[in-house]
Amino acid sequence: MSRRISVLVITRKTAGGFFLGILFLILSALVVGRAIPVLAPLHPAMVGKVITVDPGHGGIDPGSHDDGGVLEKDIVLEIAKNVCYLLARARAVPILTRHGDWEMSPIWPEEKTRHRQDLAARIHIAHRTNSDVFVSIHVNKVGSASTRGAIVLYSKNKPESKRLATCIQQALKDVAPFGGQSVLEGDYYVLNAARLPAVIVEVGFISNPDEKQLLLTPTYRQRLAEAIFRGLLAFFEGS
Questions:
Q1: Which of 74, 130, 157, 178 could form an S-S bond across to 182 if both were Cys, CB 3.0 to 4.6 Å?
Q2: What is the 3-state secondary structure (H, E, C) of the chain?
Q3: Are 88 and 32 in contact (CB under 8 A)?
Q4: For helices 159-172 and 218-236, what crossing angle results, to 10°?
Q5: Residue 68: CA atoms inside 13 Å, Cβ hemisphere, count?
Q6: What is the fold, at CATH topology level, of the domain defined by 13-236?
Q7: Quick one: 190 exposed, middle or buried, by C-beta within 10 A (0-12, 13-18, 19+)?
């Protein structure tokens, strides 16, 4: 029987040692609700790296949606959980900002609006856990039904964020190719406020009928998660 935990706060100081690494695997399994083999493939560059994975939106904020009940917040939550599972197998320390359908604003009430409180809470979690990187996962929607593919956004004047975005997009291009410029500067709160490499990964467009059907498929969501993981691995390996 899988269990859930509401809060997982791990600092960098706890990241040393083999036995603590096994503990991280167990805790991460509780978060994502999946069993994690102890003898998983080892990626030395990932060991002990603290990575905040943020499923965008949640609670009263559904994110992008269509008229048939397809909600961004549900799609990205599963992808984020899959990413955390893969990170835990690689002996990294995944921090999932939410593992259920709720907003984050109660964590950081200092901001003036609920929306800003929600965003600030996600970055606060990354800062409080001394995360090495912050990855926020989203789904896109535009007026054109023909636009499809993944886009990764980063804040200007942050070279490491741009490198992280490029690494992730290089891994995503074979799964969700985008016809235009797919690594872009973005003027968004979570990117600008982050004191660490941070990106927003828009994994696809629900406004594209074919891509929407793919995003509703567990197999495709798993492929997207694997691509994000490969991009993170490339970043930490110095690619």
A1: 178
A2: CCCCCCCCCCCHHHHCCHHHHHHHHHHHHHHHCCCCCCCCCCCHHHCCCEEEEEECCECCECCCECCCCCEHHHHHHHHHHHHHHHHHHCCCEEEECCCCCCCCHHHCCCCCCHHHHHHHHHHHHHHHCCCCEEEEEEEECCCCCCCCCCEEEECCCCHHHHHHHHHHHHHHCCCCCCCCCCEEECCCHHHHHCCCCEEEEEEEECCCHHHHHHHCCHHHHHHHHHHHHHHHHHHHCCC
A3: yes
A4: 140
A5: 7
A6: Aminopeptidase (3.40.630)
A7: buried
Total number of residues shown for the chain: 239
Rounded to whole angstroms, the Cα distance separating 100 from 77 reads 8
